Amino acid sequence: MDQALQTADAPIEKAPVQPRRITWYIFGVMFGINLLNYLDRYIFSSIASTVAKDLHFGLDGIGFIASAFLIVYTVFTLPLGFLADSVSKKRMIAFCTILWSTSTVFSALAGNFLSLFFTRMLLGIGEAGYYPAGTALLSQNFPPSKWGKVLSWWNVGATVGLMTGFILGGMIVSSFPQGWRYAFVISSIPGLLLGILTWKFPGREPETKKTEPHSPDA
C-alpha cells in the first residue's frame, strides 16, 4: 500500500548534474540578460523628452508610450509564465531576449509616435516572458540550498541595468544629434548576442515525468 501511494506522488522534476563552471556560466549570461532587461526598459525614461521633441508629441504621448509597455507586460506575464512550464526554458529565454532586443532596434528607427508605441508594446511582450522562464532555469541549475543567493545576485543585475539605462541614455543623447536613436541601438546589440548564447546553453534540461498510480494488490 505504501509503495502504491509513493508512485502516485506529484510530478518530480530532477535537475541534471552539470559541472560547476557550466552552471556559473549560465548564471553569468542570465545576469547579463537581466541587466539588459531593465536597461532596455528604463532607457526610454532618460531620453523621452528628446524623443518627443524629434517625433513631435508631448508629455501625454510620453505617458501613452510608457503605459503601452506596462499594460502589455502585465497582460502577458501570466500566460507566458504558464507557457514557461511546458516548453524549453533556455529556448523561451532566448526567444524573448531576441524579441525585445529587436523591438529596441526598431525603436531606433521609429519615425512617428505610433511606430514607437508599437515597438514598446513588443518590448513588453518579450520582457514579460523572460522572468518566469529565467527563474525556472536558474532553479533547475542550482540546488535549493543556493536559490536564495543565486536569485538575489540575479536581481542585482536588474538594479544595475536600471541605473545604467538612465546614465547611458543621458550620456548618448547629450553627445550626438538624435542621440536617442544611438541609445536604442547600443542597448539592443548585447541582448541579441546574449540571446544567441542562451539558445546554445550546454547541457540538457530536465524533463517532467509523471508516474501513474498502481492499484494495490488484492
Sheet with most strands: 2 strands, antiparallel
Low-confidence stretches: 1-13, 208-218
Overall pLDDT metric: 87
- CA-CA gap between termini: 10 Å
What's the architecture, going by CATH? Answer: Up-down Bundle
What is the number of domains? Answer: 1
What is the H level of CATH, i.e. the homologous superfamily? MFS general substrate transporter like domains
| DSSP summary: helix tally | 7
How would you describe this structure to a colleague?
It is a multi-pass membrane protein. This protein is mainly alpha-helical and 218 residues long. It has one domain: MFS general substrate transporter like domains (Growth Hormone, Chain: A), CATH 1.20.1250. It contains seven helices and two strands; from the N terminus they run αβααααααβ. The chain has a two-stranded antiparallel sheet with strand order 1-2.
Summarize, please.
The protein has seven helices and two strands, in the order H-E-H-H-H-H-H-H-E. It is mainly α.
Name its key features.
218 residues; disordered C terminus; Growth Hormone, Chain: A
Question: What's the topology here?
Answer:
Blueprint: H1 2-7, E1 12-13, H2 20-55, H3 59-84, H4 89-108, H5 113-141, H6 147-175, H7 179-199, E2 208-209
Antiparallel strand pairs: 1-2
Helix pairs in contact: 2-3, 2-5, 2-6, 2-7, 3-5, 4-5, 4-7, 6-7
